[in-house]
Amino acid sequence: MSKSYKHMNYFAKNEQKKMSNMATSKTSLFSPILKILDSLWVTPDVLSLLWMISIILAWLSIWYNLLLAFILLILHIIFDWLDGSLARYKNIDSNAWAFVDIVVDQSWLVILCLALIYHNISDPFFIATYVSTYIIMIIFLIYSNQLDRPIPFVVRTKYVAFGLLLVLYYSSIYWNIGYDILFKVFSIYQIWVIIYLFFTIRWSLK
What we know:
single chain; mainly alpha; 74% helix; flat
């Protein structure tokens, strides 16, 4: 595994050290909050439970209140940040915590894509293709990093997709054709990364 980031991850080679430094900075930034949580005997398990509840509620609220779903997703992200930071603060971070963090990071993308499909933002086929190729790409990235063969550079398009949904909600503009094109482009790019990683992994195994 890359020496720049000591636990299981899906970061590209150019991100490894940056993300490791960011994790350290985040723990330092949240240290006053983490100290309070620690004094209250709050554990990373409790925060993990809260982000699990928030993501489930976000999924349920998609069909009734999109704004509430956004708020719950934001809470989900906050709990996720605090979860990992508290684990590092207590010096109990591990591959087990890293695995949970990765699952959390991808779960909100699935929620987002369900919202896009439900609100008829884009063609369901293109959204399904996008989210499927994204998850497969993440799995391949993790495995290639475990083999210490990280990809030099990668673009994780979920942040662009999330930003587009926010713009859509607050502007009430439905650019269906534009979204279809974007999801096609994202999917093609992710398929290319998957193919690259497939052969990287294949030739790394004996």
